[in-house]
Amino acid sequence: MRLWLMLFLLAxxxxxxxxxxxxxxxxxxxxxKRLVAISSELRCLVCQxxxxxxxxxxxxxxxxxxxxxLIQEGKSDAEIMDFMVSRYGDFVRYRPPLKGTTLLLWFxxxxxxxxxxxTLVLYLRRRNKxxxxxxxxxxxxxxxxxLLNVKEPQK
Amino acid sequence: xxxxxWPLIGFAVLVALLAVGxxxxxxxxxxxxxGKPAPLFSLARLDAPDQNFSPQDMLGKVWLLNVWSTWCVxxxxxxxxxxxxxxxxxxxxxxxxxxxxxxxxxxxADKLDAAAERKLALERSNAWLKQHGNPYRLSVLDLDGRVxxxxxxxxxxxxxxxxxxxxxxxKHTGPISRDDFSGKILPLLAELSx
Lengths: 155, 194
Fold this sequence. Notes:
The complex is a heterodimer of chains A (about 160) and B (about 190).
Chain A lengths: L1 H21 L6 H11 L18 H15 L4 H12 L14 H28 L7 H12 L6
Helix pairs in contact in A: 2-3
Chain B lengths: L4 H19 L19 E2 L7 E2 L9 E6 L4 H16 L3 E7 L15 H19 L5 E5 L3 H5 L7 E5 L5 E6 L4 H16 L1
Parallel strand pairs in B: 3-4, 4-5
Antiparallel strand pairs in B: 1-2, 3-6, 6-7
């Protein structure tokens, strides 16, 4: 119990530490909120599996600074997205736009799922047909019972 | 038909997809700037800090813009290729010195004022070029990396091929190998220079 309490307190202090670290940037809360919202939609190109908002890479810092400036200049979210896409391409967006080259990306998983389901249904049907479920003849029935009713030798 | 045939085919397809996928270079992100005009800038020259250079000065020429820095390790790998390129050919190579001071993790750029940062950047980069050879017609100083952002730079070194009308025709990310140069860049330069 005590251990858990300590762990909990530790976790809490870690959270507050993080909050303190981010504080110097928060000159203007609304701007920062928008910055976080926009930059979590963007990929950091240096460490590609991290979002721009979570990355500590140098370039991510620069780009966040740039986005902050754009927000302060009164640019809309769409304009800021355009700014990034025109420089780094659709790859910076975690949600790529729907267009010719991204059709497979968007609908590929659905196609795979449908394909898999169709294959499964076809396979099950064919197997059902293949299974011979005609009832046993009287003789076979007797034979089966004989086999089943044999008492197992006691150990 | 053998009941193992289809699973085997499925497995083979999967292996083929993985083989292709794992051999792709994740750093090779297609640049949206290819086919678009090179972003304009005006930056101080390394050899003559009181003069500025702008891509407009190069209109009518085919040229390369190479992003480099003294703290960039892969640039050292690329540098001999650039030096040979400059010696053997009439390639117009312009260097963009990217965040010379701020990009160096070993330096605390926040402690320096603008003038001191500029001075340090000039000293460091000029000394480096003296030591390793200078393949550039000229280099310019992008101290804060702003121009780098306009060009979509995300890893140094990067190289852009720009044609006579100022359109970016190719972007190469990462160090240029001799094969890259003779196989990709040189043929493109020849075609663009026609």
